[in-house]
Every structure is written in C-alpha cells, then in structure tokens.
Amino acid sequence: MKEFILKLENLTKEYPGVVALNNVSIEFEKGKIHSLVGENGAGKSTLIKLITGAVDKTSGKIYYKGNEIENNSPINSLNKGIIPVYQELNMIPTLSIVENIFYGNEKTNGLILDKKYMLKKTRELLTEVGLNISPETKIRDMGIGNQQLVEISKALVRNVEVLILDEPTASLTDNEIKNLFHIINKLKTDGVTIIYISHRLDEVLEISDTITVLRDGKVIDSKSPTELDEEMLVNLMVGRDLIRNKKEKEKEIVSQRVLEFKNVNTNKIKDISFILLKGEILGIAGLIGSGRTELAEAIFGVDEILSGEVFIGGKQKKIKSPRDAIEENIAFITEDRKSLGLLLDLSVLENVTYSSLENISKIGVIDKRKEEKLVKNILEKLQVKYSTLGEKVLNLSGGNQQKIVIAKWLLSNASIFIFDEPTRGIDVGAKEEIYNILRSLTEEGKSIIMISSEMQEVINISDRILVMSNGHIVSEYKSSEITSEKIFIDSASLLKEQKNG
Length: 501
Hints:
repeat; transport; Rossmann fold; 3 domains; ABC_transporter-like_CS; 17 helices; single chain; alpha/beta
C-alpha cells in the first residue's frame, strides 16, 4: 500500500491581480522521486514556498504524515524535515564546510560549542555524499558541484524526510550530475522523499518515479515517466506547438566588422583573435572552464587586457573597465542574473532604467512620463509578464527576470550584446522567446556573442561558432558545419594535451 508523506489539497495562492496557484492537489509518496515541471511562471516556485512555509496559502490544505499543517513557517518546516535546496545556494562563502552545515543549528556541550562532535558529524556526512574534502575547507574555495553536495549535507544533518531540489544540475558537469543522481537514489532507498524541479526534461524522465506538470498555476497531469517522452512533456507544459529553433538556412551576414580581437591576452585567456560581424550571432562553445565567460569579461572590461589589440567599428580602442565598454555600446547579459544582473528588491521599472537614467532625465530630473512609456514599450516588445511596474523583480519568474535584464540593456541603445548562458534555468517556452529576441536584435543590425553550455543550443542559434579550450580559441565553424561531437572533441583537445604533457 502506498504511503503518502505529503498531500496538497486544493491549494490556491492569490496575489493582487494574479492567481499564482489555482486549486492544486498533489500527493507525494514516501521514498519516491516526484518531479515538478512547467514553464517559468507555471506555479512551481509558489508551490514550494507554500510547502516550506515561506508564504501563506490563500486557501486549501497541506497534510504531512496524515496531519494538517497549520501556521506553517520555514522554521517549522525545517524542524519537520522538509528541507529545500535552491538553485542559488544558501551558504556563507567565507565560512568553512562545518560552519555552514551547522550554521543556526550548532551543537553545544553545556554552554560551549561541541566542535569535536560537529567535525566528526561533518566528516560522516561528507563521506555519505561522496565528498572527500576537509570539513574545514572554506566554501569560497570549492566548485559549484561540491557546494551542492554541502547543501545536501546540511539537509542530512537535520534528518531530512522531504528533500526539495530546485534546478540542482543547472551548473553541474556531466560527472557531477551522475554523482548527484547516485546520492539522490541512495536517499530514496533510505526512505527520503525527493521533490525534484528541473527544466532538463531528459533528467526528469531518467530519475523520476512520478512527474507532475503545472501550467498557469494548475495541475495539468501526473504520470509515470514510462508513459511520457520529452515531446509529450513539452506539449503538456506549454499547451501549444513550439517554433523549432533550428534555422532552415544560413542568413546573409553583412561583412562589416563591429568588433575585432587581435592576439589578446589576459590572465585567463591566451592569444585570442576573432571578429564579430554586424547582424550576426557568434556562438562561443566549450566545456566548463574552457575560458568562455573569461572571454566575455575581457570584452566587457572586467578582466584587464595585458597585450593585444581591440578594434570597435574599425577603430582601435582601450577597454579598461565596464564603463569603457558601455560607452562603446557593449552590453553584457551575465550568467548570474540574480547576483550581477538584477536588483531583486527594486521594482520592474527601477531595474529597467537604473543604467540609463541619463537618457530619460533633463538637468538631473527624471521625466517620469517618458520613463514609464519607454519601459512599457520595451516590456511589451519582450512579452514580459508582470502585474505592475512597481512589482519587485524578486517576484517574477526566471524567464521574465532574464527578459528584464535584456530590457535594461535595450534601453541603453547597445549595438553589441554579450549573452552568457541566456537560457540557464528557464523553461522550453521561455527559451523560444529568448531565441526570438536574439533573432530580432540581429534583424535590427545588432550583433550578438552568445555563450552556452548547451551544445545543441549554440549550434541551432548561431551563425558562426568559436570553440574554446583551456583559455584558447581552438576552432571556428559555420553553423552548418558543426556537430556536438566536433565541439566536444575540440573543446577537450588542449585539456588532453595539457594532461599528457
């Protein structure tokens, strides 16, 4: 007989002007992996906030181990063993592993911290998650994959019974994903219930026992993965046919050079030479650590250029800071939109305009009417879903947050756009909208450099592709010439040479 550890009954959550969840009922079986999928804005995040007590429900009931949860709160939920691990990891970089694991949950011996116990327990937890590292290692000295395992260790120390994983593989390598899946399956064997949220549908189909599809705040269906494939999932999620993102033919590119690097070196990239043409999408491919983001940071003036030449519009330029890059009409849509691209506690209006206030002000006074009109026009163009211009960006879905970052730079009148992982953490429907935005920018004569870890995405959206390995550009292809296999072989080439050397 099935044992349901968590039941949601007719849950509804309303915000002013928006129904985020509408009469949602789901049962989570003990010791099983239950995935939630849906477009950004489908209601997944709101559902998790209700389960963990981060927000209050408008109506409906939540049952845990057969008892209704009343007066829920994050602390109460943690004490029950319902523990979330979010995509943006919640740790203090300057503290050690053991300090992060026991932060707010310290063990004492009388009035004194029991450091001996906490170190011993941390070693046991790290062994359990397959992490061979000192408990006293600082979080800032660890890779994102290992940080993820520390987050899971934090859950284990609290005797987790329901583990909620929100986009857990978004920044992980293939080997790190395999290790994570091994740990998830071990936890499942130990009786832990996993609520798994991901836009990577192949992973969802691989690891889940049950998959629930949400759309527009409602449950569309719950099925076993044996009854589904990726195309069926996509159709359930979006409720419409997607425009396939593969180009039918290569477009004609004007051979006008808007950006050129000649033998550029920084502390992180070596002997970089390339050109960017007007109206093209130049893809940058390569494995994690190949130097893709470091190239973007050199273009944008984040990393100092030690030698080489940079030409913009045919004229040699010195880009020594992001301010220099912005003055040359270069925009950088960063991978880490929440930390670096957005001011989450500010409004939609403020986020779109704070980098371009000089364009909407006279003698230091902002023209409010002009500001609102410009922002509304841009948000309509990008099809951003929001309630009011005063709504905090924090409350928007991931896809809409990404569009806000783009809107900010559109208002700046940039002509060269650098997109670093533009679709990271957003769903298939929002991805198509981002692709359409990229294409429309090039139709207006803008030029785009796009970095993505999804090889097929780079192939499908780019006009030309540069492959990087170990800080070098190792090959260049037209999109019609490239395959995932070529990217993988080329991007691993210098790493193999370095290892063999």
